[in-house]
């Protein structure tokens, strides 16, 4: 989250106000870093501590936790501060160009501006919109939203979303619900440079991309993503991960180490990276850890 905000500050010419929705108590070290950014760059950074009570029985996964549901209520909270429009970012994103361009998007007649989810419009997922019963033939990624707060609240989107989530279990949780409730009420862009998800990283040059979105489990702050085998060391994908590390090392979080493997999947990915680099000894060690974590449950 900190690296994302730092990257926005460094790439955006106009001043931004940041509103962070956080679960529990934020560590003092992070608060100090955000305070430093706020003072150095003269940008407001406001932190809201959210109680997970309303979301505790909702679906979650190892990569998508209850905090994903915060986007549903964020507009209602911001409206109290007389904010009429906001841009929502997932925390696993990185800004590579000026987001002031989003101020030019006219969404007065719609609830939000969104970007089509590339992964859900191809192959086995291409008819997923039909499964949800959408009138449009489009499915968007909810990690990036430009929200018309007034219309969002007028249409009771937060309340309706929570009710749907209480009654039903959706494979993609709040993203499915937002696609259902905002069907035909959003501007859906097919320009992936505004929200470039992992599945399409190799198809865009970083010079053109505004926001890159590290979806899936291979997050750039995980140690194994800093070590790539020869097969992908020169791809565009590697460049995006390198860009994240560039901003990380320039940010106040530069002293915070990358996450070491914690679960079986992490160890498997690390073993894969060692294998691709022909480091067989460390590959065997990492794979042994993977097997241990996988079968010790």
What is the name of the CATH topology of the largest domain?
Spore Coat Polysaccharide Biosynthesis Protein SpsA, Chain A
Q: How would you sum up the major sheet?
A: 4 strands, mixed
Between the first and last Cα atoms, what is the distance in angstroms? 31 Å
Question: How many H/I helical runs?
Answer: 10
- How many β-strand stretches? 9
Class of secondary structure makeup: alpha/beta
Shape designation: globular
Q: Estimate the strand proportion.
A: 5-15%
How would you describe the oligomerization state of the chains in this entry?
Answer: single chain
CATH architecture of the largest domain: Alpha-Beta Complex
How many separate domains?
2
CATH class of the largest domain reads: Alpha Beta
CATH fourth-tier homologous superfamily of the largest domain: Spore Coat Polysaccharide Biosynthesis Protein SpsA, Chain A
Q: Going across the biggest sheet, name each strand in turn.
A: 3-6-5-7
Please mark out the parts with pLDDT under 50 across 5 or more consecutive residues, or reply none. none
Overall pLDDT metric = 88
Helix content: 25-40%
| Helix-strand topology string | HEHEHEEEHEHHHEEEHHH
Cα-atom radius of gyration: 20 Å
């Amino acid at each position: 989250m900190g690296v994302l905000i730092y990257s926005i500050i460094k790439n955006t010419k106009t001043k931004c106000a940041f509103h962070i929705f956080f679960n529990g108590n934020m560590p003092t070290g992070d608060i100090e870093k955000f305070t430093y950014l706020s003072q150095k760059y003269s940008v407001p950074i406001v932190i809201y501590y959210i109680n997970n009570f309303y979301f505790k029985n909702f679906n979650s996964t190892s990569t998508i936790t209850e905090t994903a549901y915060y986007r549903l209520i964020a507009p209602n909270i911001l409206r109290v501060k007389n904010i009429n429009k906001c841009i929502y970012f997932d925390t696993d994103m990185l800004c590579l160009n000026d987001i002031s361009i989003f101020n030019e998007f006219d969404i007065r007649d719609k609830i939000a501006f969104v970007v089509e989810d590339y992964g859900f419009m191809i192959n086995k997922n291409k008819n997923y919109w039909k499964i949800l019963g959408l009138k449009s033939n489009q499915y968007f990624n909810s990690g990036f939203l430009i929200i018309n707060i007034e219309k969002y609240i007028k249409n009771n989107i937060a309340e309706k979303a929570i009710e749907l989530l209480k009654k039903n279990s959706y494979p993609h949780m709040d993203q499915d619900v937002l696609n259902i409730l905002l069907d035909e009420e959003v501007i859906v862009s097919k320009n992936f440079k505004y929200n470039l998800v992992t599945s399409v990283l190799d198809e865009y040059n970083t010079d053109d991309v505004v926001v890159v979105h590290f979806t899936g489990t291979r997050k750039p702050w995980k140690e194994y993503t800093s070590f790539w085998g020869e097969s992908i060391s020169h791809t565009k994908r590697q460049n995006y991960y390198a860009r994240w590390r560039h901003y990380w090392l320039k940010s106040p979080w530069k002293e915070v180490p990358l996450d070491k493997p914690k679960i079986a999947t992490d160890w498997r990915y690390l073993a894969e990276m060692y294998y691709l680099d022909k480091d067989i000894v460390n590959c065997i060690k990492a794979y042994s850890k993977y097997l241990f974590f996988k079968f010790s449950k």
